Task: structure prediction
Amino acid sequence: MDAFLSGLKAIVDTLGATVLLPVVIFIIALILGARAGKAFRAAVTIGVAFIGINLVLGLMLGTIGDSAQAIVRNTGIQRDIVDVGWPSAAAIAFGSSVGLWVIPIAIVVNIALLMARLTRTLNVDVWNFWHFAFIGSLATAATGSLGYGLVIAALMAALALLFADWSARAVQQFYGVPGVSVPHLASAQILPIAIVVNWVIDRIPGINKIDLSTETIERRLGVFGEPVVLGLIIGLVIGVIAYYNAGDASTVISKVLQTGMTLAAAMLLLPRMVKILMEGLLPVSEAAHEFVRKRAGDRELLVGLDSAILIGHPAAISSSLILVPIAILLSIILPGNRVILFADLAVIPFIVAMTAPVLRGNVFRMVVVGTITLAAGFYVANALAPLFTSAAVASGFTMPANAVQITSVVDGFLWISYVVIAAIQNLAVFGLILLAAIIALCFWLYRRNTDAWERAAGAGEPVEASQTQEA
Amino acid sequence: MALQKNVLFACGTGIATSTLVSHAVTEAMKERGININSTQCKATEVRSMLNGVDLVVSTTQLPTDLGVPVITTLAFLTGVGKADVLDKIEATLRG
Result:
């Protein structure tokens, strides 16, 4: 088995994601029952997306990397781990040797847990399988073994379903989305942190009364929600710090403006490239939906969706607008940090959205929880950056010559990634067993005391109102 | 000649779920004789993208004072109630 897997990994490494992933996607789509023509077009589209992402990533890393080196020379501040954003992370994940297997793995895990009645969620969000593949590919980068990556991907798929079931009632009530759950690891990981911090804040007199109005925040800080403008501003600031002493005035001005424009471009183009990847995955995701639904029986199931559906809520928007400058400040003041934030400043809503039910939409508390999570996240990112970078290289992405490492807030900042990697690096196979045991224990505890768990996640009484809404 | 309409599709990222909905709606409306010129954006960008837009279809909550018809729906993601929402979209675009 091991020889087979390592042989397979060798083939993957030679062909690269641009060639192999389309082939795999084509086969998977056919097996799931998509029409051949549709499947073929989808497969080619995915290959195209990889080439696009690679181009933009090169542009962005080149610019930020050069600036980062200049900043070190100028100020002695070392920020050479570039936040390349979730679009890159998703591409790395799907392009990795684990990514090739993640769709069938996550579907099998979902069907198995549905049949065992251990979950109520039908995870049709095939796109977000990348989170499982991503942590899996970190595991493979850490151990050099594809087997580890595949097992981790399967465990993460199960964990996402647990988080989805656990938070479903709270999310449905708070966001008004009946019949839905959110099996999204990057969003769900904050839940335990939110529960603990909320408990603490409740017990601090004075602080426990604070709330913020969402409307003023949206009006004042709305610019942080527009990626192009955000990219331009950050680019200009980075440009000034890097090149203020680059020569005469005209050289300085042109260098600064060029950095600003290039990063504005990267901020807009990177998600556009990933949209192509998403379009390619659509037929697979549709086919998977049907495939799993047919096998799940007649039971009333929760449909697992992307947390993107939660992000428009004023509380989620406001708190993440405030968190953008806070995150930048953290990146400057945290001792030992080498991460330079960029692309994922646009997706902070994903980090905080799931806290809203626990914190009753209290923006102040969401900001506190978000700040704590991000601060811890920086250290996770610093620790995981070498693995993140080698996973990217293994997926066929070109790293620029200026010796930067890469990370992203989603998923490079997640404590789950850190725990997984720490477990397998220190304990090898026992780490896998330990992780599996912990996840199984959580499944068991949740089933034993479902109501208490769901209340902790922010659910209220199982009200009739939500049921009438459903009917 | 088929009716030509501009529809803005919004979601949390402007990429993931809005792509799915955009494809579904554009295809279905074509069959009903409406050509859709679709754009996508993040929920936070909606306000600056409204120029010339006839309808906004979103998978996530949007402000209520946009001055343009807004339909917020998960039907295309969950598969429940798709036909109803399509009727509503068609009615809004023809109205």
